[in-house]
Amino acid sequence: MGNVPTAVKHCLSYQHLLKEHLGVTEGVPPEQECQITGFPQHIKIVEVGPRDGLQNEKVIVPTGIKIELINRLSEAGLSVIEATSFVSSKWVPQMADHKEVLQGIKKYAGVHYPVLTPNVQGFHSAIAAGATEISVFAAASESFSKMNINCSIEESIVKYEEVVRSARDMNIPVRGYVSCALGCPYEGCIVPERVTEIAKRLYSMGCYEISLGDTIGIGTPGSMKLMLDMVMKEIPLSSLAVHCHDTYGQALANILTAIQMNIQD
């Protein structure tokens, strides 16, 4: 794998979670396993390492290594792998080879390879490169939005409405992210009501799924539950996902909390 950062080599397994943390042993039929744990039988994993895991790395990862990483993730059995981001190379140099990566990977049957597109220009570039699914991202923090994408939350929503309209016209599925769902590096705690409002707007414009991200990893099972309780009142459970960072060692506990609330993504 060459010099791929350690962070993107680690993959949490739902089966491992059940065996190591809940005491479910091998040989238990899936139906009985669900009865024992009270958890859903299937959990969908959306692997974002090739994009989110690499985008802030200071050392540029060679294009060939990125392609190899994605191919190995496909071979590992993952069904959704976010391959890259069609952003300006000026702002995210690590993603400058987005076209080469998307066109260079082996497309496995049954595997989806969405890409992140921050604006209409990025969307059209992604489609021209062969993308068949995209993602957009908005922040629940005004400060984070301005620092990360150089525009207000409202301005970003207007951009994404245009992107989603273009995608829907071409029957391209769109997944939405809400950053800073459990905390912001500039504003601290984020109230669940704000997360809910951003999630509602992304869902209303046509995102088929909303991923709620603990961007800086400060969430706890308690704050995860409070946030999900609020969002689940407005967004169908089947259209919600969580994205947890392990900055303070809480990711596994937060994922477990989400699964206990029947989040399956």
From TrEMBL:
The keyword Metal-binding applies. It comes from the Eukaryota. InterPro entries: Aldolase_TIM (IPR013785), HMGL (IPR043594), PYR_CT (IPR000891). Residues 43-265 form the Pyruvate carboxyltransferase domain. PROSITE patterns: PYR_CT. The keyword Metal-binding applies. Keywords: Lyase, Metal-binding. The gene is HMGCLL1. This is hydroxymethylglutaryl-CoA lyase. GO terms for cellular component: cytosol; endoplasmic reticulum.
